[in-house]
Specification:
six-stranded mixed beta sheet, globular, 26% strand, seven-stranded mixed beta sheet, 5 helices
């Protein structure tokens, strides 16, 4: 599998798509069956107005998702990507899962961050799990994966891979620590014994810089690839393609040594 950390630019959609395409092709060339791209990859993130967001939004049967499905058919891979979705009069911060030229599911971000409610309508549905050639995938978006209940629901539904297109803004944090977003991804992957694949972004967009914390975490909570930036130097994040060779079915094993089990040890009668 692969997480592609790509520079998005709201003012250069053509250049952005070219960079996305090169990253996907490089990931597949190196053997990736499943490739995750960043949040709002179709449009960029730093909208100035709701009207600008609506103008950038595309329907599921629009150009960007059509490009993704064509790429998945050509390369024989599963693609998970964020995109700015138009539906009726609403714009959604969405993620699409495509395989073999077909759309398997679309997920709309439920937990909106910062000023996002000015631009997007929040999703209203619980996590969904879809079967792919790479394993059982539950798409989420950025801030969604910081809520442990959301990861738990997906794990209870049989998810093996939590795929997370993200745009993590660079915020102040202790210089000797990893960003909290990366730490949460490790903690929740280990707690619920699932793989978490996060494709963050890089580049500077309208003055905003990004963590560049793309990471692939195993069910034991430890990184298999990345994080692309550990945040220690707080230097500008760079484009990267992270790859890990995994067996998705390992996420079905919730056993913790000879005496414990990550799911059966829970006491829901008490909480």
């Amino acid at each position: 599998m692969a997480a592609c950390q790509v520079a998005l630019d709201i003012d250069d959609p053509r250049g952005t798509q070219q960079r996305l395409g090169r990253a996907v092709r490089e990931a597949v060339r190196q053997g990736a069956e499943l490739v995750v791209l960043p949040e709002l990859a179709s449009s960029g993130y730093c909208f100035r107005t709701a009207a600008e967001a609506r103008a950038a939004a595309q329907p599921v049967d629009g150009r960007f998702v059509g490009w993704l499905t064509g790429l998945s058919a050509e390369l024989g891979c599963v693609l998970v990507s964020g995109f700015c979705e138009a539906s009726g009069d609403n714009a959604f911060n969405s993620a699409v899962v495509v395989q073999a030229g077909e759309v398997l599911t679309v997920y709309r971000k439920v937990h909106l961050w910062g000023s996002e409610p000015q631009f997007f309508t929040p999703g209203t549905k619980r996590p969904v799990v879809v079967d792919t050639v790479a394993g059982r995938v539950a798409p989420m978006i950025c801030y969604d994966q910081e809520f442990p209940e959301w990861i738990r629901i997906a794990a209870d539904l049989g998810a093996e891979l939590i795929t997370v297109p993200a745009n993590w803004p660079q915020l102040a944090h202790p210089s000797n620590e990893r960003p909290l977003e990366v730490i949460k991804a490790q903690a929740f992957a280990g707690a619920y014994r699932v793989f978490i694949v996060i494709a963050d972004r890089c580049g500077t967009e309208r003055g905003q810089s990004w963590i560049g914390g793309s990471v692939i975490v195993g069910p034991d909570g430890y990184p298999l690839a990345g994080p692309a930036s550990d945040g220690v130097e707080q230097a500008e994040a760079q484009a990267q393609v992270l790859l890990a060779d995994i067996d998705a079915h390992l996420a079905q094993d919730k056993v913790l040594g000879p005496h414990n089990h990550a799911r059966r040890d829970r006491r829901p009668d008490l909480y």
